[in-house]
# Entry
Amino acid sequence: MSSHGPPIPMTSHACGPLQGRAEVPGDKSISHRSLILGALSVGETKISGLLEGQDVLDTAKAMRAFGAEVIDLGDGNWSVHGVGVGGFAEPENVIDCGNSGTGVRLIMGAMATSPITATFTGDASLNGRPMARVTDPLAEFGCQTVGRKGGRLPMTLVGAADPVPVRYVVPVPSAQVKSAVLFAGLNAPGKTVVIEKEATRDHTERMLAGFGAEITTEITDEGRVITLTGRPELKPQTIDVPRDPSSAAFPVCAALIVPGSDVLVPGIGLNPTRAGLFTTLREMGADLTYQNEREEGGEPVADLRAKFSPDMIGIEVPAERSASMIDEYPVLSVVASFAKGKTYMPGVKELRVKESDRIDAMAVGLRANGIEVDEGPDWWAVHGLGQSNVKGGATCASHLDHRIAMSFMILGMAATDPVSVDDGGPIATSFPIFEGLMGGLGADVRRDT
Ligand code: S3P
# Structure
């Protein structure tokens, strides 16, 4: 089992206005997919703006283990010489995906229809997360799996020597499951069909089309019906990874709650399957504008400008929006603490099986900082105290979860008393420059000595 090293306790103190430009790193979802699809192409894929967080570095290492040549050229520029669909070699050793559910689930899909065996593991967080949601559909292709009780890692997959295509209705709203099935479908002859009732992030569909696969999406009464024709020759691409809206969420939300702030977060992807948080914040009365709206690499992009918003109000976040902001609920709950009234967030069962149980992790930490939170199996509600009434002062557990650690650091920037986390180490999985970037805007986040 991997671990990220000794805990790094951190404390965030109330700070003056946050001001300036926040250039957040590349999109995590697109970074994982760029490396995997590059590895499944024939020839050289060139990637710029790759997120060099630990999650993505673990995927790069895994692609090397499956036989691709993956070269770090420096400054976010990477080159991948792929082995082609069906060309994965059998890894000589266990594949350690660290903290990354996206990494392990997508890679399992990508190898499941090749006649090779691979064993996967991760850190304590990843080894506690459910994998049956991916291995169940992979079994339909002919892939065999042996794992721990409850379908947990470490787990060995024996890829199908004679894969058959699959028609699969995804039972939970999960882009990782959808993507694992589509990646497995690449090396199955004929058409693999994936049906999702709720739209989840669609980077896999867009990128597969970009790499030359035959893939269509139809909206029907059943939901989104995605049809992929197997055994394509994927053509290498040049990819400029857009900046991550899930990372942009942190400087944006901080600016909304720290008095006097005015922050520009340039070049953020506003793909509708990812932008739910920004819509929600605007509905709460946030002074958040989209500037210089444009299209880059087929994705809508804008510069986000967030200003201090003392009069935000609690709202009900529509359940059907949850997939488009699933990673942003922790930091939304922090903003909701500074709004007036209740923010009710239904339809979020999936939050309980992320890097941590995110409802529980945030509820316990917010309560310790003086905020009332109610919760049920698939909903939660934060009772906002209004600007300048949040006490803070507690140390919160981050549960090996980067977004929990960063959310409590944002809380400390606007609470009366400092807020601490027991371990900020996991922040490096998705946002390795978080401390420096927030410090550059005027935040006071310190590692405890
Ligand atoms: C991701 C999908 C989401 C999200 C994760 C990234 C992806 O997970 O939470 O951070 O890149 O496909 P689920 O598929 O579990 O919803």
In short: The pocket of shikimate-3-phosphate is lined by residues 29, 102, 174-176, 179, 201, 326-327, 350 (CB under 6 Å). The first helix runs from residue 28 to 39. The chain has two domains: 10-26+242-447, 28-240.
